[in-house]
């Protein structure tokens, strides 16, 4: 099924950029539950007891999705991700360019807001953490293959790419490089955490979106619009 597609590799030695939801300024997650420090300590201990231990969660956590972390965390929209059904294995997604991570995450953030607040007409802000991770791996190179196989960058369906991801993951490949479906940039889908190392912060971003308006304003410096993106992507 995929023989004509998988015949080129890239010997990748460089950084990948990942963009995740977070907050710019650290906060006490449990101070709104109780003003008592003892109660807060119990809540912190309970949360830590249920957390999957990892020395490098920014690398390893995506691989837990679909194995020990299940619905709704990895598969909240019922679709999984582009190269995983969200049930059998997890995938670590990064991009070659910072801007590509923005287009990718704006798409998913907009979908979440439209599901959660479809009738709301006000600005909703969300904060993001962007970091670089070193990748040393032989990767299946699908860049440029979308011309012959447009389902690689289908904007609405993962019906082709999820079986492809399952096939490559079962074969023990490290991952793949592929064009983004949201912009002209390039993405990486990594199947093995061992090829990733050296997490380094790059920047923080703030996304401002209104479910009633199809635009997203992106701030890199607080109060200054860095990118403005038209939705849908």
Distance between the first and last residues' Cα: 29 Å
Number of helices: 4
Given helix and strand content, the structural type is alpha+beta
Count of extended strands: 8
Question: Can you describe this structure?
Answer:
With 233 residues, this protein is of the alpha+beta class. It has a domain of 160 residues. Helices cover 21% and strands 32% of the residues. β6 and β7 form a beta hairpin. The radius of gyration is 19 Å and the shape is globular. About 4% of the residues have low confidence.
Fill in the keyword field for this structure.
eight-stranded mixed sheet, alpha+beta, single chain, 233 residues, globular
Summarize the topology:
Blueprint: E1 9-22, H1 37-49, H2 57-64, E2 92-95, H3 98-116, E3 124-141, H4 161-170, E4 175-179, E5 186-190, E6 196-210, E7 213-219, E8 225-230
Parallel strand pairs: 3-4
Antiparallel strand pairs: 1-3, 2-5, 3-6, 4-5, 6-7, 7-8
């Amino acid at each position: 099924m995929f023989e004509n597609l998988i015949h080129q590799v890239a010997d990748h030695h460089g950084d990948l950029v990942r963009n995740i939801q977070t907050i710019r300024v650290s906060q006490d997650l449990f101070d709104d539950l109780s003003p008592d420090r003892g109660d807060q300590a119990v809540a912190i201990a309970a949360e830590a007891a249920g957390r999957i231990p990892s020395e490098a969660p920014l690398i390893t956590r995506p691989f837990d999705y679909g194995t020990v972390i299940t619905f709704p965390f990895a598969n909240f929209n019922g679709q999984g991700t582009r190269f995983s059904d969200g049930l059998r294995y997890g995938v670590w997604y990064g991009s070659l360019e910072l801007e590509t991570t923005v287009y990718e995450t704006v798409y998913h953030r907009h979908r979440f807001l439209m599901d959660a607040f479809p009738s709301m007409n006000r600005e909703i802000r969300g904060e993001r953490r962007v970091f670089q991770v070193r990748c040393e791996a032989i990767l299946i190179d699908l860049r440029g293959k979308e011309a012959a196989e447009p389902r690689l960058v289908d904007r609405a369906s993962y019906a082709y790419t999820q079986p492809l991801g399952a096939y490559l993951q079962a074969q023990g490949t490290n991952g793949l490089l592929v064009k983004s479906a949201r912009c002209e940039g390039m993405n990486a889908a990594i199947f093995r955490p061992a090829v990733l190392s050296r997490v380094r912060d790059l920047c923080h971003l703030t996304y401002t979106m209104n479910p009633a308006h199809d635009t997203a304003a992106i701030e890199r410096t607080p109060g200054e619009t860095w990118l403005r993106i038209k939705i849908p992507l």
